[in-house]
Amino acid sequence: MADEEFVNGFTIAQILPGANVANLIIYVGQRLFGPLGAILGVSALLIAPFFMVIGAVVCYQVLKSQHWLAAAMTGASSAAIGLLLAMFISNVRRIGRAWRPLVFVTATVIGVGVFRWPLIAVVAVLAPISIGLAWIEERH
Amino acid sequence: MRDNILLSLVVVFVPFSLISVGGGPSILAGIQREAVEVHHWLNAKEFVDLFAIARAVPGPGTMLVTAIGWHVAGWAGALAATLALFVPSSILCYWVVRVWHVHRGKRWHAALERGLAPIGVGLLGAGLISVLRIVDAGWTGFGVTLGAGAVAAYSAGIQPILILLGGATAFLLIYQP
Predict the structure, then answer these.
(1) What are the backbone angles phi and psi of residue B39, rounded to the nearest 5°?
(2) Which of A18, A60, A133, B146 is a good FRET partner for B10, with 20 to 30 A between their CA atoms?
(3) CA angle A40-A44-A45, nearest 5°?
(4) H or E element, residue A66
């Protein structure tokens, strides 16, 4: 697979809904090995984490009443939120300073995060407008 | 009753699968709202804990739904939730990939990409607010969040689990003398 083709797939994987890594595997799997490649690729991606997550949750449920675990989990959760924060900041920086993207980032954050309107409804309203404006921008 | 739970897992997660623009973390706020407030599958503390567990384990962070499914309905729940979240978006992706290269470089590609990106980023921010609101970890927790964020931002490629272990250790040292 050529570099350009891979980069193209990377873009598609990010635009489309779904975990980016799963989409990328579908792209590569489909291109190289057809439908079976895509199915096997995604299955391979998910099978090990599926059992590992369940194993971790079982341990968590068994030990949940221990006080030290409650404290440790709160610390781990706080750190996990930090990872999300870093991801959010790097994404905002990548988007740049143009007004349209920043307006839509802000509107989405306020609608879903602050006012807590249903996520699907907010996206259903904002996404078409944002795509429409981007479409107009593309003309220039 | 059990069938109803499996069915509601599917009914709740399938739409999220198709709307998770920008990747898994973008639907965190929506999943939190549905799982904790609407369906009461788990309480806020459990949700935040499972969020951390899913982030610690290798693989997509969206495996959070697997953990939720397991929590509410065991193996069947885990399987139903995982399939509900990954199958619809995968089918859509497969279909788009097949037609995409035919229209390579078209204007609507760029419009779609540049139009959806800010929505995805905004959803990420909303997810951040939704977990910050329920984590209930006090100022110490907020400090750990900022510290973890700084470490993640400035040491690219570090394993997430190391940062999570760091946060857990900090809390153990402070609250468990």
Answers:
(1) -100, -10
(2) A60
(3) 120
(4) none
Positive or negative CA dihedral for A105, A108, A112, A118?
A: negative
Write the CA distances from B142 to A52, B56, B135, B160, B174, integer angstroms: 28, 19, 10, 18, 14
**B-proximal residues of A, 77-116, CB under 8 Å:** 77-92, 95, 100-109, 111-114, 116
Q: Residue B144: which of A70, A90, A75 has the closest Cα? A: A75
pLDDT digits (tens, 9 = 90+) for B83-138: 999 999 999 999 988 887 666 667 777 888 889 999 999 999 999 999 999 998 89
Distance from CA of A41 to the nearest CA of B (A): 11
> What does the pLDDT average to over A72-88?
95
How far apart are alpha carbons B50 and A57 in whole angstroms?
A: 7
Q: What is this model's ipTM?
A: 0.90
Tens digit of each residue's pLDDT (9 = 90 or more) over B133-156: 999 889 999 999 999 999 999 987
CB A62 within 8 Å of CB A54: no
Whether chain B has a CB inside 8 Å of the CB on A32: the answer is: no
Determine the Cα–Cα distance for residues A12 and A4; give it in Å rounded to an integer.
Answer: 12
Q: Do A26 and B93 touch (CB under 8 A)?
A: yes
